[in-house]
Each structure stands twice: as C-alpha cells, then as structure tokens.
C-alpha cells in the first residue's frame, strides 16, 4: 500500500525504495522532471503490483 501511494506522490522515492540506485531510478527521475505523469506511469510499471 505504501508503494502505491509513493508511486503516485513521489515516483522516484518509490523506485529507489524498491530497486535502489540504478538505471531505473535515473530514468524515473528524468521522466518525472519532464512530466509528473510519465514518472508515475514508469514507477507503476517498474514496481509492478506486488
């Protein structure tokens, strides 16, 4: 449940908590800077539904 909330509010934090520092986090930061919605979508895709 916390991951879902973070995926919506702070996508890079959610990706970092699940995968640590790596390419997924960097991609998510770039997408979030470009636009919040692409960052949210990427966070949901990367983190899955578990």
UniProtKB/TrEMBL annotation:
Task: Report the InterPro entries cross-referenced here.
Answer: PMP3
Which chain regions cross the lipid bilayer? Answer: 20-46
Q: Where in the cell is it found?
A: Membrane
Name the major location.
membrane
Question: Coiled coil: which residue ranges?
Answer: none
Work out whether the entry's keyword set contains Ribosomal protein: no
A Pfam family hit: Pmp3
Does the UniProt entry include the keyword NAD?
no
* Keyword terms, alphabetized: Membrane, Transmembrane, Transmembrane helix
Entry-linked PANTHER family: HYDROPHOBIC PROTEIN RCI2 LOW TEMPERATURE AND SALT RESPONSIVE PROTEIN LTI6 -RELATED (PTHR21659), UPF0057 MEMBRANE PROTEIN ZK632.10-RELATED (PTHR21659:SF42)
Q: What protein family does this chain belong to?
A: Belongs to the UPF0057 (PMP3) family.
This protein is called YqaE/Pmp3 family membrane protein
Species the sequence originates in: Autumnicola patrickiae
């Amino acid at each position: 449940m916390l991951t879902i909330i973070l995926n919506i509010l702070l996508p890079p934090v959610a990706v970092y908590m699940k995968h640590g520092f790596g390419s997924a986090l960097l991609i998510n930061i770039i997408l979030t800077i470009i636009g919040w919605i692409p960052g949210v979508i990427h966070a949901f895709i990367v983190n899955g539904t578990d």
